[in-house]
Design a protein that fits this description.
Layout lengths: L2 E5 L2 E4 L4 E8 L6 E8 L6 E6 L6 E3 L7 E6 L4 E6 L8 E10 L12 E4 L3 E6 L1
Parallel strand pairs: 2-11
Antiparallel strand pairs: 1-3, 3-8, 4-5, 4-9, 5-6, 7-8, 9-10, 9-11
């Protein structure tokens, strides 16, 4: 059974930091790019960042570039999202997702390119 379980969300003031984690089980983690998406109330789910299966490459949405950092530990089947200098517009439910095996490029940045999803963790940034 595939499970992606996010943790680390919460309430933080603008300018603060949070670290999200996503623990995966039931998948060949080290052969899949892992991504974070987010969805604000009333909005569509949007791409945030993706990391290649080896950890050797990443791609960030412009809105988070320079503030967020993705990393992964294949030995622990876990992907992380360090979020610094948070802004109220970062408020959303953050979802971890696993792409199809060895999928990269544009396909690994879209909702349709993901095989599996977590249930999400809420991040609220107050002004």
């Amino acid at each position: 059974q595939v499970q992606l379980v996010e943790s680390g969300g919460g309430l933080v003031q603008a300018g603060g930091s949070l670290r999200l984690s996503c623990a995966a089980s039931g998948i060949a983690f080290s052969s899949r790019a892992m991504a974070w998406f987010r969805q604000a109330p009333g909005e569509e789910r949007e791409f945030v960042v993706v990391i290649k299966w080896s950890g050797s490459d990443t791609y960030y949405a412009d809105s988070v570039k320079g503030r967020f950092t993705i990393s992964r530990d294949n030995a622990k089947n876990t992907v992380y999202l360090q979020m610094n200098n948070l802004k109220p517009e970062d408020t959303a439910v953050y979802y971890c997702a696993a792409a199809a095996a060895f999928r990269w490029g544009q396909l690994a940045r879209g909702v349709d390119g993901m095989d599996y999803w977590g249930k999400g963790t809420l991040v609220t940034v107050s002004s």
